[in-house]
Design a protein that fits this description.
- By secondary structure, this protein is an alpha/beta fold.
- The chain has helices at about 1-10, 110-115, 125-135, 155-160, 180-190, 210-220; strands spanning about 30, 50-60, 65-70, 80, 105-110, 120-125, 145, 180, 195-200, 225, 235-245, 255-260.
- Helix 5 (about 180-190) packs parallel to helix 6.
- The longest helix is centred in the N-terminal third of the chain and has 11 residues, at about 1-10.
- The relative contact order is 0.23.
């Protein structure tokens, strides 16, 4: 409810409510939570990467300078959104996700200390409840962001993913943190969050073979943001996140531009 009301305020804000820095209300700073797309962008070992194709760079026969490119990319790579249909038949595709799931107050849970000593760490129910003990229960409609600290390794594939190898055999060598399936199931049934995001390649940890956290969240139509950047710049609460993917009508995922407004 709180997130929905705040989203409505941001969408309907009048010019008089815009601060001197161009931000609505009492927000003072914008943090970009998005990794750029280029030849170094990290993708799943079995996925094709991002390619920018130069169509024209230079001066035209009429004398003015002009650039135009085309690009190709897998849905799931770089900072991107996973739509529920990715692992749950009949659930929402990218273009069907309500904007209220993509614009909301943020709760940031820092598990970087646990992940520093365990690349395979999985965020637990206890981690979430410890945050709630300090900051109050996760608000209905909030976006939950999990800070593992792994964004500091981007774009070093080996440090970020556990391996720089490509292909099917490399999948078994992946080592990075994620959300424990029990915690995903608990969030889907005991809380009413809008979305979950984190700064690793997958909401399931690298050694997962069943991707159960994906399954639990997506059956509840909760989208996921992966490879999020700069979570260390956000407070535990108080930020407002706007996460807008490319609107691919039947997409199971899409490149994502995600930002946070800070009070």
């Amino acid at each position: 409810m709180v997130a929905g009301l705040l989203g409505a305020v941001l969408l309907s804000v009048s010019p008089a409510a815009i601060s001197g820095n161009g931000l609505p209300g009492n927000y003072q700073q914008v943090v970009d939570l998005t990794h750029s797309y280029d030849e170094n962008t990290i993708y799943w070992p079995t996925a094709s990467g991002f390619k920018l194709h130069i169509d024209f760079h230079g001066y035209t026969d009429k004398g003015y300078y002009y650039e135009a490119n085309s690009f190709s990319t897998a849905e799931h790579g770089g900072t991107h959104l996973d739509a529920p249909v990715h692992f749950a038949e009949g659930q929402r595709a990218v273009a069907e996700i309500p904007l209220t799931n993509l614009m909301a107050v943020a709760a940031v849970i820092d598990v970087s200390e646990q992940c520093r000593s365990n690349r395979d760490y999985q965020v637990t129910i206890a981690d979430i409840q410890a945050w709630e003990k300090r900051h109050g229960q996760l608000a209905d409609g909030a976006i939950l962001l999990l800070k593992t600290g792994f964004a500091q390794y981007w774009p070093d594939r080996e440090r970020y993913m556990g391996t720089a190898e490509r292909g099917e055999e490399a999948v078994a060598k992946l080592h990075f943190p994620g959300l424990h399936p029990q915690a995903a199931q608990w969030l889907a049934t005991e809380r009413r969050i809008a979305a979950v995001g984190l700064d690793t390649p997958s909401i399931d940890y690298g050694q997962s073979t069943l991707f159960e956290s994906h399954q639990y969240l997506f059956k509840a139509n909760i989208p996921v943001f992966e490879n999020v950047a700069n979570l260390d710049a956000l407070p535990p609460n108080g930020a407002y996140v706007i996460a807008l993917p490319m609107k691919i009508k039947a997409g199971s995922g899409a490149p994502l531009r995600i930002i946070a407004l800070l009070p």
